[in-house]
Amino acid sequence: MNIYSAISSNKWKTWTIMVLFVVFITTLVYVFAKSFGLSLSLVGFSFIIAGLMSLGSYYYSDKLVLATAGAKQVAKKDYPEYYRIVENLALGSGVLTPKIYVINDSSPNAFATGRSPKHAVVCVTTGLLSSLSEVELEGVIAHELSHIKNLDIRLMAIVAILVGFVAILADIFMRSLWFSGNNRDNKGSQIFLIIGIIFAILSPIIATLIQLAVSRKREFLAVASGAILTRYPE
Fold it and tell me: What does the pLDDT look like over 128-170, one tens digit per residue?
């Protein structure tokens, strides 16, 4: 398998996992609803609330991440080599040059954020800039720009929201058991209740495993795309 077929295979695997994730959440909601005899309209309302929360995360998560990390936007005169590498690789990858940030931290680290290539940010620590050679820094920046071009940031934000939604659903279900009593004479409802309890216990674990699987696929994709972008796999 060459690098191009590996990238294509990786993309298909990622979206297959995402489809299974949506099916899993739909099944989870259905089981929880049947356990308490809830109407599907109430289930739909919960999805609307989750959607509004997702929109808020979609538009403001990057600002929250940068503020939390203490990142500062820098000018070309402050870090000319770093700035030039980002500009050149962005041009080579066909994306707009992202905003360039630096964190004053001795630990070597880097990340990309932003909901789309038009609103993207590349951020590195001062420790990374001081410890890497120019070629090594190009490799790191190519990796982060590949995340931007492949829309990995948007995808992982969606996955994180879905994982959080599963955790909230499971928590609401378990708490509801304390207040609902045991007035279910319907055998079918009792069966769904048992299944619901099992799902509530296992679903956060399953959701986290799915999140890790998607993350692993997208990291491999960014590495492969970065190798193509730099034309220097080593």
Answer: 999 999 999 999 999 999 998 888 877 777 777 778 778 877 8
DSSP letter, residue 118: G
pLDDT tens by residue, 188-223: 567 777 888 888 888 888 888 888 888 888 888 888
DSSP H helical ranges for 150-186? 152-180
Q: Is 53 exposed, middle or buried (0-12, 13-18, 19+ CB in 10 A)?
A: middle
Which CATH superfamily hosts domain 68-149? Metalloproteases ("zincins"), catalytic domain (3.30.2010.10)
Catalytic residues: 144
Q: How far is CA 68 from CA 16, 72, 103, in A?
A: 33, 11, 11
CA nearest 58: which of 182, 158, 208, 128? 158
